[in-house]
Amino acid sequence: MPTNFQNKAAKNGMAALVTALLLVYIVWGTTYFAIGIALQSMPPLWMNGTRFVLAGVVMLAWALWRGERLPTARQWRNAGLVGGLMVFGAMTLVMVAQSHGIGSGLMATVVTTMPMWLALWTRIGGERVPLTSWIGLGLGVGGAVLLSLEGDFSANWIGALAAFGAPLCWSLGSYASRRLDLPGPAMASAAEWLLGGALALAVAAWLEPVAGLFNASATAWMAWTYLLVFGTLIALNAYLWLLQNTTAALAGSYSFVNPAVALLVGAGIGHEQLNGWVFAALPLIAAALGMILYGPAVVRFLLSVGPSRRRACEPAP
């Protein structure tokens, strides 16, 4: 029989799992709204660069405290590629999209197409992709087409291109991180955030006046702080913990929840207006993610249950 210590350990483990999931579900679902608030008076590239450089410094200190080694020259180069795609490319495109009128809820919904693109890059890279994932990709494309009919997209092609380009960059960076030589998880995050943020700062110095950063409102700086502390340092580390302590499917389940949270926050607090297309697209995207994440397991279950049902229906000798 399990001891009291074992029961307590199990409860503590479940509490940690639920806490990590709630952090990823709620915090990442609200970051797009926080980005929209910050963008009202803060230059997007300066905001992105300063956020990730500072987060990278904090993560670097934590990784060194944990005893992780500094990256080799090859790993720094690889981290620069991943950070350039994810931190600079994807996050900059998110900010461009939202600064051109794409609402936070709609932006979060578009970002859920990322696993579909990741499955596609995986197949192009030579890895086997199950048939259920291809079905999911087809459903996801259908959802993306419906989303493109949403008012914010049809009225602003620059925002639409940026919105759909963001998950493309994020998926390419995610795929590259699986194939390239990188240091330990904390050190890899530190290097990617530092280099991606530094690239954003370099481009910001060229394109945006730095005075805009110092003239930002107190509300914008509060949103920036929320993005730094909760969106990056806390929620992203909670996600990394989930990847190590639970299934990839459960860790990736934030893709289903974040759009709902973002839509509720955007409509309830930000008074964002949505027409019927986004609500028609959401079920397709959810079904697509379900096929990609859980499709093979469902097929195996049905195949295993089928023979047992047939045997149960056979007459007794």
Give an account of the 3D structure.
This protein is mainly alpha-helical and 317 residues long. The two termini are 41 Å apart. The protein is globular, with a radius of gyration of 21 Å. Helices cover 82% and strands 0% of the residues. The protein has a domain at 1-42 and 216-274. It has 14 helices and no strands. Helix 2 packs across helix 11, helix 3 (73-99) runs antiparallel to helix 8 and helix 4 runs antiparallel to helix 13 (254-268).
Strand content: under 5%
Write down the secondary-structure element order.
HHHHHHHHHHHHHH
Shape category? globular
Q: Percent of residues in helical segments?
A: over 70%
- Count of DSSP strands: 0
**Rg on CA atoms, Å:** 21 Å
* Mean of pLDDT: 80
What count of helical segments does DSSP give? 14
Structural class: mainly alpha
* Biggest sheet overview: none
Uncertain segments of ≥5 residues (pLDDT<50)?
A: 4-9
Span of the ends, CA to CA = 41 Å
Which features would summarize this protein structure in a list?
317 residues; mainly alpha; 14 helices
Short description:
By secondary structure, the chain is an all-alpha fold.
What is the secondary structure topology, with strand pairs?
Elements: H1 4-38, H2 44-65, H3 73-99, H4 104-111, H5 114-124, H6 131-147, H7 151-155, H8 157-179, H9 185-207, H10 211-214, H11 218-245, H12 248-251, H13 254-268, H14 276-313
